[in-house]
């Protein structure tokens, strides 16, 4: 851990975020001693990606907003030069069988992109693609009832994570997989997830990350979600990634200025704690 870095954050361009200006986030980062701050907003989604018009309107900016977004972050980057390394990025959704759409997002901005977080927010479900992190009742109706068990949903999620790693490897800039444990956001409101299954699938993803040279977004947002209560990347996996040479970057996933730096102590503790030699469960 060489620098204090928040690698996952949002702005007023986020449709489910906060209208505060980016300077409020950046000033908070400076106050907390961060040296680098990655702005990673949600880019456009395909039309009717989710068959729910009100929800679609909350998920991502439109193509027409992209120039303004990039100009906005670039201007902040210049203003904070010498105080904070502001990097220009996106949180790109893994879009199953739609890589051409991802290319349409990325290609015009490839020279400007410094950081890309690739996240799995959607799975095939009842009536088409469904959000995995919208509401517990929506998850139950459109995913759990569709797949038949939490075990099947978890496997479908990690199948998509593995494909997302392949996608990330094809993109410019520094690449990370976002909030690997997001499937557990509603763990306290839905049937329990088999922790052994989660560990097995996370362990299976690790060599894929190594081969693809893709990092991990150590996302702490789950700690502030009432139905979750844990970070989206467990400490054992952070240490396993470090041992394997996979870059781990703290991510507050801030959607409000006051969330900048949230959970940094969790990340710092995990990064500083050494795994016991030969132990698979330190």
- The oligomeric state of the chains shown is single chain
Architecture (CATH level 2) name: Alpha-Beta Barrel
Helix content bin:
25-40%
How many domains is the backbone divided into? 1
How many separate helices?
Answer: 9
- The CATH homologous superfamily: Metal-dependent hydrolases
Strand content: 15-25%
Mean pLDDT: 95
Q: If strands are numbered along the chain, what order do they take across the biggest sheet? A: 1-2-3-4-7-8-9
N/C terminus separation: 19 Å
Measured on Cα atoms, how large is the radius of gyration? Answer: 18 Å
Stretches where pLDDT is under 50 for at least 5 consecutive residues are: 274-282
- The beta-strand count equals 9
Helical/strand content category = alpha/beta
Major sheet characteristics: 7 strands, parallel
- Please state the overall shape, judged from the principal axes of the Cα atoms: globular
What's the level 1 CATH class? Alpha Beta
GO molecular function: histidinol-phosphatase activity
InterPro entries: Histidinol_P_phosphatase_HisJ, PHP_dom, Pol/histidinol_Pase-like
Family: Belongs to the PHP hydrolase family. HisK subfamily.
Protein name: Histidinol-phosphatase
Give your account of this protein's structure.
- This protein is of the alpha/beta class.
- It has one domain (5-272): Alpha-Beta Barrel (TIM Barrel), CATH 3.20.20.140.
- 38% of the residues lie in helices and 15% in strands.
- The strands form two sheets. A seven-stranded parallel beta sheet has the order 1-2-3-4-7-8-9.
- The protein is globular, with a radius of gyration of 18 Å.
- Residues 274-282 have low confidence and may be disordered.
């Amino acid at each position: 851990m060489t620098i204090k870095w928040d690698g996952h954050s949002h702005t007023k361009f986020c449709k489910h975020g906060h209208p505060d200006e980016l300077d409020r986030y950046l000033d908070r980062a400076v106050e907390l001693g961060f040296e680098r701050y990655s702005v990673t907003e949600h880019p456009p989604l395909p039309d009717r990606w989710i068959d729910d018009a009100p929800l679609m309107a909350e998920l991502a900016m439109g193509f027409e907003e992209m120039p303004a977004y990039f100009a906005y972050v670039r201007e902040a980057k210049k203003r904070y030069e010498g105080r904070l390394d502001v990097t220009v990025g996106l949180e790109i959704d893994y879009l199953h069988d739609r890589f051409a759409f991802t290319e349409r997002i990325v290609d015009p901005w490839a020279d400007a992109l410094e950081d890309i977080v690739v996240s799995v927010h959607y799975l095939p479900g009842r009536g088409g693609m469904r959000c995995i992190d919208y509401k517990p009742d929506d998850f139950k109706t459109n995913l759990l009832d569709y797949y038949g068990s939490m075990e099947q949903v978890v496997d479908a999620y990690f199948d998509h994570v593995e494909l997302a790693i392949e996608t990330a490897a094809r993109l410019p800039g520094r690449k990370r997989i976002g909030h690997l444990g997001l499937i557990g956001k509603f763990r306290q409101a839905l049937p329990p997830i088999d922790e052994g299954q989660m560990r097995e699938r996370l362990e299976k993803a690790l060599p894929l990350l190594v081969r693809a040279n893709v990092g991990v977004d150590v996302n702490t947002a789950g700690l502030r979600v009432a139905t979750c209560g844990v970070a989206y990347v467990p400490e054992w996996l952070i240490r396993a990634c470090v041992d394997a040479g996979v870059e781990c970057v703290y991510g507050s996933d801030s959607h409000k200025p006051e969330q900048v730096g949230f959970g940094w102590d969790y990340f710092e503790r995990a990064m500083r704690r050494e795994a016991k030699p030969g132990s698979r469960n330190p």
